[in-house]
Amino acid sequence: MKILKIFIILFLSIGFSHLKSDEKNDALKSKILKNIRCLICQGQSVYDSESEFAFSIKLIVDRKIEEGLKEEQIYQFLREKYGDWVIYNPQLNKNTYVLWLLPLLLFLFGGAIIYKKTISKNNKI
Amino acid sequence: MKNKFSLFIIITVLSFCFVIFYKGLNNPNIYAPKIKDKKNIPIFEAKDFNSSAYLKSEKIFEEDVFYIVNIWASWCVPCRIEHPLLMELSKNQSVKLIGLNYRDNINNAKKFINEFGNPYSQIIVDNEGTLSVEFGAYGVPETFIIDKNKKIIRKFIGPINKEIVEEIKLIIK
Amino acid sequence: MLANQIGYYSLILGLLLSVLLCGVSIKDLNSNNKQINPNVLSLSFLQLVFVIVSFLSLILSFINSDFSNETVFNNSHTTKPLFYKISGTWGNHEGSLLLWLLVLTLFIFLFLIKSKEQPKKYRILTLLFQQIIIIGFFLFVLMTSNPFNYLFPIPNEGLGLNPILQDPALAIHPPILYLGYVGTSIIFSSSLAAVTQNYISKEWGQHIKKWVLISWIFLTIGIMLGSIWAYYELGWGGFWFWDPVENVSLMPWLTLTALLHCILVLERKATLTSWVVILSITTFTLSMCGTFLVRSGILNSVHTFANDPARGIFILIFLFILITLSLGIFFFFHKENNKDSNNFFWLSRETSILINNWFMMYFLSVVLIGTVYPIFLDVISSEKISVGPPFYQKLIAPFLIPFLLFMSVGPRLKWIKSKIENKKSLIITFIISVMLTFFIVKNLTTDLLFYTILISAAFFLFFTTLKELFIKKFNNISQTVAHFGFSLLILSILFNNILSSEIITNIKIGEKYNYEKSEIFFKKIEERKESNFNSIIAYFEIKDEKGKIIELNPEIRIYDQPVIITSEADIKTTLLEDKFLVMNLVKGNEYFNIRYQVKPFMIWIWISILLLSLGGSMSLFQKRYEK
Prior knowledge:
The structure holds 3 protein chains of 3 kinds.
Chain A: H1 2-14, H2 21-34, H3 52-67, H4 71-82, H5 97-118
Chain B: H1 2-26, E1 39-40, E2 45-48, E3 54-56, H2 57-60, E4 66-72, H3 77-90, E5 95-102, H4 106-116, E6 122-126, H5 130-135, E7 142-146, E8 151-157, H6 162-171
Parallel strand pairs in B: 4-5, 5-6
Antiparallel strand pairs in B: 1-8, 2-3, 2-6, 4-7, 7-8
Chain C: H1 2-30, H2 38-63, H3 70-75, H4 82-87, H5 93-114, H6 120-144, H7 168-181, H8 184-196, H9 202-233, H10 244-266, H11 273-295, H12 309-333, H13 349-381, H14 389-409, H15 423-441, H16 448-470, H17 477-499, E1 501-507, E2 512-514, E3 519-529, E4 533-543, E5 549-552, E6 555-560, E7 563-568, E8 570-573, E9 577-585, E10 592-600, H18 602-621
Antiparallel strand pairs in C: 1-10, 2-3, 3-4, 4-5, 4-6, 6-7, 8-9, 9-10
Helix pairs in contact in C: 1-2, 1-6, 2-5, 5-6, 5-7, 6-8, 6-12, 7-9, 8-9, 8-11, 9-10, 9-18, 10-11, 10-13, 11-12, 13-14, 14-16, 15-16, 16-17, 17-18
């Protein structure tokens, strides 16, 4: 058992990527574009859209990646120009605490109810 | 007791949701971002419409007047409708109009200007639409008002109309 | 035109029948007859007939391109193929509401016929509650969304149907989806009826189970058809975007699945009774809520329905009346059961079903909050944010891991009290899953740890259910098949995610594009004219690493009414992978922009959802309840 565990940990730590840098850039660009809302479309991302706006954004993201900007910096750039609405991944700020935390709180609440129902009744059976 | 308490909670939550949805229905769905903090104009270099030389943004906005940046294109139908109003605004001494020709064919754009008149003290070319993104625009036509501190203070999405012209005239006094 | 008049007056008659039905049923409720008044059944049937007549009249108007009808004018065109003229009937707001009415009236009639051995008062009350919903919809249609409005002078031509809606999958997607979605109304009405009669019992559980199953199966397949349509039509190779309209169909599915599992408990003994009622109410409420969100214009989405705030207000008020009514009835009538029957050991089948519900409610809360939170934020603080796929993925994916593990262990537990049998084989299966996963995934992705754990969990479920199928444990075959389908679904989605590759490039006619494994050759284009569009068909030859050549022919279509340009992807599907090619014009250029994707295991996603529904169907036809 122990040896098995050690092997597993060793394997996990060796994990490496085979992607070349070009592919990495492409993959990064796709990932970013999927996260940007096309503002003149109804509910499409820039990645999916062929509109003028999407075209311009794609060019800008290309340039920013070449300039060496990181993913979060590119998002920040766009947020400054267009507001939070343009990015699909909602940030964790004072506006969105409820958004991110409420489901988790409900999960814990549900767990508490189940605990009460089953474990504490354990005495009887 | 427990039942009454949970009933109370449910009624409160439901009423709250009802009010929110009701108000939400009446909100306009078009996203027109209000300018909360006045942003600086972006720093850029752009190609001049007539001379094809490259101009720096500091040079374009160097004078001590109000500037109106108007994004337009020859293929944009509402631009033609707002154009006479732009001509009217250009007569005003306290403001200069800068045209941003968006993703356009240069010959068609020149024909547009020849036919409808030129309200712009300067026109710059944005073939790829990337300059408009620097301004935070997403289409044509869009109009930005820039004050003497070189900050963007007002933004109009879509063609301007008579009321907007009056509002601009008040701002640039 | 005559069809218009007939359609309109049928609706009015249907509404009057509702009122009549209510009167007759209330009278029958108080009578001493042991059997239900046969008039009630006949009137219900008559109401169904009127709605069918109305629906057929609208279809007829569409087939005849009768543009004196405003709905036909807005949504059809003489050059549309017949099949799409017909399916255009329900591809718009007014017509789809007729579909709502059709399913509402159909289901209540079928319910009355199929429930003859149930208590009389219960059946009548179910009818009454359903009629409240039906009356609400009749009023909604007649007051705000009449499909039979007159246009004068009569236009020569219609405005046409959006070409991306002219697709076979989308033609049958609404009817099937609505059978599930609207079918939850019966569960709503009957559970309210049962509550007032204190009839939430074992017998009621056995009786309502088939209705829950029927709704669930249709809802599952309906959602699948929508995804298939998105995949083939929307041209970007995705099949789920967490778009509000998609979420809105998923939410009732989550509660319905939870309810289904609770009914499995209920049909054995009367436990979790309050929760079952709450779930029944919630499921239909979510359907109504979904209708509100999608048709009122309050949300921004790819799926355009005619948006009108006036309609939104009607639905909102109707929705809240239903909620208030149902909660009122629940609080007033529901009696908590004898405490003893609520006992079960923590390690038992009942607990695993509770855990299932726990996770389902969590997933529901993620989807619900993600969908409506922007509305709340906008109203309260005028800030607009977007909640898109990253949010849902981040909150759901980690929880899938324990969920899958529970799904493997849960069904093996006995009712009331259990031990985990065959612990050794379970652990061995688990280790095999992890090692197998690791060796497969190690070279494929950078997100190694997360994917390894998630895929291992999916494999664990996969192997445990597969084993049960093989050693021919046929006691619970429907559940095994369904759980197996689910594991296959997760595995297909995950592997598809990891292994998909994509190339985006601009290419000219006659050009060849090389990338590491293979070559794309843009041979030629052909132009073709169809009845309502012109198309440019491109001929591509793609040579893969082994030298095998396949042909793909993406299309660009220019529709004439309305003028829309669409890209039609060409997809070659095999059991192993889909090859997906879509082409777009580049403005002012002789170049075409192409997207070529290789998507492994796509078809397994659809197959696994079918397996899921198969499991449900098997349960429907099983005579005795699960052991």
